[in-house]
């Protein structure tokens, strides 16, 4: 409490009264002076704001048991750029700390950890992206880029289909429209590029945040991190009752919809992988009957990938904007809309694969999938990869001795 009283005194001394703000001085600038930050590495305004708020939270520690962010915070006395990006990607934006915080606006400390962390996460995706120009473009115009990309790719695929997408039924044989070799080459190359770009970006991120902890990696730490990723532990709000969405009421809907989306995506990926094995190892070519493993996996995954993103979009539209970063909404919604389009066109393609509409539906579906692959490293999908890396670091460092007495922070 002595530290909080000291911080309050600094705030009152350094912050100008509202009525005496001079020309050119904004409220944001006034608040930024409450706790001066002198980082070792230069930080931008968003990063500096997170460091400021973490200093306040480190003195209070009321939210210490809420999620992985606050225990990791207590291991630090200062917050440099690497620390800020690490903590920002640990944050799941559940909102619990905001509604519990006595220093949230309109308090003069103006602590809003979910919003501050969200702004830095957006910086993470573009700062570590490879190539960086693609990340900057997508983060500014996510929905436009995604939908325009899907349309352009659809038109290109239409041309590849000899200029016609209305043909006599081909018995559900997709390769009668687009040869297998052409599809494998196109999608394999784009997916490989997306994986490479993600790998380069996450490697850059890990090298910056993992200093001093990488040597402590263990099977137990990896297992804990994997569990937290797969179970979405911290979307439970730190108490298991869920996140805050439109108000301060708890709900597990975001966790449930995330599970449907994630596991639906993985089932669809498994369906494609099994079909690849069928084709190359067993010489079994598509189309496969409905009760075959690839179709069952794809259908189940497609349903999950329809319900999950629809629910996430509904929650996104209802979410209290105070706790988020409005700049990210185009990027967030672009990813959700692409997943919805992929699942909807995929299920429609399965239902009407024996009709004359099959070629049209196939081109639409493939165009959406290609657009998703092209934007994977630069949009919302990346948050799962960066968060997994942050959770691994958290699991590693909690098994290491403290470098300072946490009671002295």
UniProtKB/TrEMBL annotation:
The chain crosses the membrane at residues 143-163, 183-202, 260-281, 293-315, 335-352, 358-378. The keyword Aminoacyl-tRNA synthetase does not apply. InterPro entries: Citrate_utilization_prot_B, NarG-like_sf. The keyword rRNA processing does not apply. SUPFAM superfamilies: 4Fe-4S ferredoxins (SSF54862), Respiratory nitrate reductase 1 gamma chain (SSF103501). Gene3D superfamilies: Transmembrane di-heme cytochromes, Chain C (1.20.950.20). Keywords: Membrane, Transmembrane, Transmembrane helix. This is Tricarballylate utilization protein TcuB. It comes from Herbaspirillum rubrisubalbicans Os34. The lineage of its organism: Bacteria, Pseudomonadati, Pseudomonadota, Betaproteobacteria, Burkholderiales.
